[in-house]
Design a protein that fits this description.
By secondary structure, this protein is an alpha/beta fold. It folds into two domains: 225 residues, no CATH class; 62 residues. Helices cover 39% and strands 18% of the residues. The protein has 13 helices and 16 strands. The strands form three sheets. It has a nine-stranded mixed beta sheet, sandwiched between helices. Strands 12-11-14-16-15 form a five-stranded mixed beta sheet. The longest helix has 18 residues.
């Protein structure tokens, strides 16, 4: 039987969703629906990409396009989804949020009918989907809230799987756990074999932390865009189950999007401003206009290696709790992105194998 899952946040959540599917269903076939909504280091254009922004898509349903290894984002946009489609053992379908909750609900309902599934499994890595909306550390509530509202609107049976509480650097683990209950399972190292290879090129930090936790890593890990390490604990490899109604009862943005039946992304952004007090889309627009937003894809790996040890020493001095750092944080901290970042990662693994704590780098 084919399973239907939704990567609630887009981007790297496809990796975590594939990992959760493997743990739950083994080698059963799966369709994973995902936004093409990624960090600016991957896609320099703010906001999500629609089907019009890709070439060589294939139909999955009348309103959902399938992303394959042959698909490609139209320049200057970018997307990791075509390569993930080539390397992950799942079928990828593109969620297009420009028609708001109404269009997303139709896409989900059509796919559920197409594959005759009894339940849709929504996966979020980190847990911002379970935010109230007023947390000071909340950064990106809109993609997840749209998915939750769309599942409720579609009328399909759906369950949230919240993987790795706190690993997305938004809502801390200690704030999430009291509301998550005791219905969970724990990912293991064996579950990670289907996804661990993608971190050779994919910049996702939350999914990398989830894999590291499943492989038994514990302790603080320094990531990009935060002044504090993310601490890997015994709760980090857990996947908590909650009903969509339980999420709606807590997530005020999802509830507002659902009740207002928004039918454009612009309207959804206005609701986000009303409920949360900010727009992550506007934040992306502001960041994309900064000349330093994307780092230097042509930086010197040799020069970065010369500056590596003093840079690592500063990390250890700043926080004695830190034991690891993500490869993305290393590369961007030394001014590298793109091919240069991947070359730096390969050189670090080759020249310092004792510090390779897959998929992280040990301090």
């Amino acid at each position: 039987m084919t399973q239907l899952l939704i990567a609630a946040g887009g981007g790297g959540d496809v990796i975590g969703t594939t990992l959760v599917h493997r743990a739950l269903h083994g080698d059963e076939p799966a369709v994973v629906l995902s936004y093409a909504w990624e960090r600016l280091v991957v896609d320099p254009l703010p906001g999500p990409r629609s089907a019009r922004d890709f070439t060589r898509l294939r139909p999955l349903t009348p309103s959902v396009s399938r992303i394959t290894a042959d698909s490609a984002a139209l320049a200057p946009g970018g997307s990791t989804l075509p390569r993930l489609a080539a390397e992950l053992p799942v079928t990828l379908g593109l969620l297009d949020p420009y028609g708001g909750v109404t269009q997303l609900a139709r896409q989900i309902a059509e796919t559920a009918e197409r594959y005759d599934v009894d339940e849709v499994e929504v996966v979020d890595v980190g847990g911002d989907v379970f935010a109230r909306g007023d947390e000071p550390t909340l950064l990106s509530p809109l993609p997840d809230a749209l998915v939750i509202a769309a599942c409720a609107t579609a009328g399909v049976r759906a369950t949230l799987h919240l993987a790795g509480p706190g690993l997305d650097c938004e809502i801390p683990e200690h704030d999430l756990l009291p509301g998550l209950g005791t219905d969970y399972f724990t990912l293991t190292e064996d579950d990670t074999t289907c996804v661990e290879h993608v971190f050779a090129w994919h910049p996702s930090e939350a999914s990398a932390l989830l894999v590291a936790a499943a492989r038994g890593r514990r302790g603080g890990c320094v990531v990009r865009d935060t002044g504090r390490p993310v601490v890997l604990t015994d709760a980090s490899p857990r996947v908590y189950r909650r009903s969509i109604q339980q999420v709606l009862d807590r997530n005020r943005l999802a509830g507002a999007l659902c009740s207002r039946a928004v039918d454009t992304l612009d309207e959804a952004e206005r609701v986000s401003r009303d409920v949360c007090g900010f727009s992550e889309l506007q934040r992306e627009r502001d960041l994309s206009s900064r000349p330093d937003a994307l780092g230097s894809p042509d930086g010197s790996v040799t020069e970065a290696m010369r500056r590596l040890d003093p840079w690592l020493a500063r990390l250890r001095t700043d926080d004695a709790q830190a034991r690891y750092v993500t490869f993305r944080c290393v590369a961007e901290g030394l001014g590298l992105t793109g091919d240069a970042a991947r070359a730096l990662r390969a050189r670090l693994i080759s020249q310092r194998p004792q510090q390779y704590a897959a998929p992280l780098f040990a301090l």
